[in-house]
Structures are given as C-alpha cells and as structure tokens.
Design goal:
This protein is an all-alpha fold. The chain has a single domain, classed as Arc Repressor Mutant, subunit A (Orthogonal Bundle). Helix 1 packs across helix 2, helix 1 packs across helix 4 and helix 2 packs across helix 3.
Length: 92
C-alpha cells in the first residue's frame, strides 16, 4: 500500500499523526496550506477514511504509520485544564 503514496503525502500524514495542524504541516514541508490539505485529502481517499482522524487511525491499522517512540513527536504543554495528564485533549 505504501507504494500508492507520494513521499509528500506520507510526510504530511506522519505530521498529522503527531497532532500538527494543516498550517503547521505546510510550514514543515515548505508548501502552501492548501497544498497540505490536498495531500491529506488524497491520503484520506487512499486509506478509505471518512475524516482526517480516521485517516490517521487507518494509517496505523494498515501499518503505513508506526507508533511514535516514547518522548518523540510534539511537546506536551502542562495545563490545569481537564483532559487527562498534562491537560492534553483530542482535537477535532
């Protein structure tokens, strides 16, 4: 399945799985936010997902994405907000 994706699509999907926004993905890949959106949408279609969070889940289910190593990825910010350890909450 990996051969159906371009390098940019895989990179965008990995960044999305780290919790990055479309604008952050665009900045990291040095592309326009609209282009990042198109890359993510194509990944969504290829993975037959309904939403972007579902796309990430399907990426893990299919083995396209690997779980991050402990401590890797985006930094978590401490907060007194509800939502579990460190106040980290799911983003729609």
């Amino acid at each position: 399945m990996k051969d159906l994706f371009t390098d940019h699509e895989l990179a965008a999907l990995r960044l999305l799985a780290q919790g990055r926004t479309q604008v952050e993905i665009a900045g990291a890949l040095r592309i326009r936010p609209e282009t990042a959106g198109r890359l993510l949408n194509r990944a969504r279609i290829l993975l037959r997902a309904r939403t972007l969070p579902h796309t990430v889940a399907r990426g893990y289910e299919t083995g396209l994405l690997s779980p991050p190593l402990h401590g890797a990825g985006r930094e978590e910010h401490q907060s007194s907000e509800p939502g579990g350890p460190g106040g980290v909450q799911a983003v729609d």
